[in-house]
Specification:
This protein is mainly beta. The chain has a 3-stranded antiparallel beta sheet, with no helix packed on it. A two-stranded antiparallel sheet has the order 1-2. The model has no long low-confidence stretch (mean pLDDT 82).
Length: 133
């Protein structure tokens, strides 16, 4: 029933906390001089987005959301995000972790076959218990 939009313009949004921004992730814009992308998905070079730092090319980094409440027919969770992959070896994975479990279940992933362009994806999440993405 309520929808929150996150654009990283002023902070990391309500879904992400500073403590959840693990090493390797930085908040930047296209003017940062760090290489592509040089703008956000709308072509705005001053708009902010999250990016892996250049030092993380051969490693991985994780983002974790706050805890979401269980879903049902009245309370659906749908997450839409824009992503950019510039390396052939890069893989972006979205996982779901229920609070009662130690394991993370991969619910979506993409590898670097579509390089150097913004793409969008929407994921609908169903969980009968509290979870993180």
């Amino acid at each position: 029933s309520s929808c929150e939009k996150c654009d990283f313009e002023t902070d990391l949004c309500k879904a992400l906390h500073e403590s959840n921004l693990q090493p390797g992730w930085i908040r930047r814009n296209g003017r940062s001089g760090m290489g592509p992308p040089y703008s956000d998905h709308n072509g705005n070079d001053s708009a902010y987005f999250l990016s892996l730092s250049p030092e993380m090319r051969s490693s991985s980094a994780t983002l974790r959301t706050n805890v979401f409440l269980p879903t049902d027919k009245e309370h659906v969770c749908q997450i839409t995000f824009h992503y950019w992959i510039s390396q052939m070896s890069g893989t972006l994975v979205v996982g779901l972790q229920k609070l009662s479990e130690d394991t993370i279940t991969n619910i979506w992933q993409v590898s670097g076959e579509l390089q150097n362009q913004w793409k969008a994806n929407t994921i609908t999440i169903n969980s009968t218990e509290k979870y993180e993405v």
